[in-house]
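User: Show me a protein chain along with its predicted structure.
Assistant: Here is one chain, sequence first, then structure tokens.
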Amino acid sequence: MADVLRRRTISFRNSRKKDAASYLQSGLHKKGGSAVGFKMPYLSLVEHPDARDAFEALGYRVIRLSRDNLLDQYISFKLAAINSAWRSDRGSITVNRFTAEPADVEEAFLKWTRWDSELARMVETLPCLHVTYEELVDGSGLTRSLEFLNLRKVSLHSPFRRQRSGTQSEIIENYGQLKDHFAQTKWARHFVG
């Protein structure tokens, strides 16, 4: 968890606050101006389970973001790792092809599917909207998110850009072999070319 008030990030870990509720109270609620939201990755919620109770006590709404196409998620993850470019404003993709091992791909698919299910259970009693990355990109998820948050529709701009270019088969050198490997599995739908 981190607040981005005053254009600086102070993580919960570095805040010297004893719990998530006091961090959120001092970091978001006692500052001037308005904070609409913040991003909290799944593993941060696992590391700080009291945050879920703080969200409920503070009346927060949760937008749970996931990726519909897990192979696209795997490609993005691998390219970021290979290039040490986890954000578009802090690095670039210079290596844009790689070979993928079927066992590594399946392990990632299983992990991300498990994490998404666990996160859904963690927030099921909170006001929650599930949106996919693909819905954000096509615009429908943004509209639903603004409605869910009772915010007016406005034009939004992000300083970030998509880092990946190319199709699945252009990026994964052994795409055909990988697609064949997963052809008769529940993962086959993620191989779209």
